[in-house]
Amino acid sequence: MDPYYSRPEVSHSDLTALEKLLYGSEDRDPTHAYAFGTLLDYMITEPEKVNYYNHTVAGSAYQYNDDDFARAAIMKRSFFKDQLCKMLAGAASFQAVSTRYEWPIEHAGFEFIFSAGVRCKWDLLVRPWKMGGDIKSTVSETEKQFEAACHHFNYFRSRAWYMDIEGTDKDVLIGISKKNYKVFKIGLDRNAPLGTKARDLYELGKSQYQELAFKYWTLFDGIKLVA
Fold this sequence. Notes:
InterPro entries: PDDEXK-like_dom_sf. α1 (12-23) packs across α7 (197-220) and α6 (155-166) crosses α7 (197-220). The protein is of the alpha+beta class. It has 2 domains: 28-81, no CATH class; 94-226, no CATH class. The model has no long low-confidence stretch (mean pLDDT 95). A hairpin with a 5-residue loop joins β10 and β11. The protein has helices at residues 12-23, 31-45, 66-81, 83-91, 143-152, 155-166, 197-220; strands at 50-51, 56-57, 93-94, 97-100, 105-107, 110-113, 118-121, 124-126, 131-138, 170-177, 183-189, 224-225.
């Protein structure tokens, strides 16, 4: 198991776990979808952890099949055929970790701090560009469908969380279709004018994580107030 996941800081995954606890989750079993997403991430960002002979990835007990590996390999090729994706991958640090401590988060005019700090782990992070990105496998066949999926799965919330922890200005959600292998890209930009899509998606994600983080703080932390 990657030691990152045993760190004490609060992660976006912790917030998502609370959301499921409070509001429930979908009936479908997400195990294969998560496992396939991990396989695709590893093929692109950490290929040395992929065992093509045994159809496994390091740190996971999940057993993939021939179809999983064949599909992920095609999706990887689609990623590197896209000029933006190729450029990002060429400049990025893969699986970089960002942390912040004594970080005030505001919700409804109230500021609070997680006593253990916060953390995130990037698929793609280009610190000199103040830009990051996240790779998602998707069943979407069009960009419109992918954007709807991003709203449904709260991907904009996670991207704003990552952006604010690291202090990046721009971010891109990269969706790779498991059906037609198209690549979809949706950008976020904290410095774009209000009313533009990239800025509005960032502001939406920020407001979503602020609300959920407050609920997490009141239930599990609630120790240190901002003076």
